[in-house]
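Target protein
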Amino acid sequence: FEVLRSNGSDPVYIVQMIFSVKSNFNTSLFLKAFNLMLDRYEILRSSIINDSGEPIQLIHEKVEIPVIFFDYSLKKISKKKEDDFREFLIKDFKNPLNMSAPPLMRLAFFKFSEADYRIVWTRHHILMGGRSIELLIREWFVSYEALLKGKALRFLPLKTYGEVYSLHCKKITALEGRIFWRNYLIPYLHAGSCLP
């Protein structure tokens, strides 16, 4: 809710990931691999609107990620490149993401030399975290490698949250569920909580 009140301008929810590539790099294929992720995962195409104080998530059919390219390879002084890069990171971090305009992220490519690239992926924390971000990045890089080698991309079918939850519930008996929640809630019951 704080995000909607600030319309995404509070940088505490902004996440910057920096990827460093120390080899010849194909930015157009890397971007194509990312666009495959945009097409594949709804969460990456979402926006959040404020409807009379209630947040509503919208999933958009098609979105384009804002991308900027910087060629630092022409700059002679290494320190100047690093200073400019750090300055960009600070400005980018403070630059709000409009919560109602998907995608809630942007990419920046930096070419430091023919074999030194950095990619800055700036996104809003509301999109994902933890294990999901690790899986997405892995799939993004595997897709990039496949595109580089001209191999066919094969993705596993996605499961909805409902399918995953249903599978989880089938693994747990009713008795196991009661035992888990009873043990989980014991500290709250003894702390004078109003929980039943």
User: Anything to note?
Assistant: The helical segments are 2-6, 27-40, 78-94, 131-149, 161-171, 174-190. The chain has a mean pLDDT of 85. The radius of gyration is 21 Å.
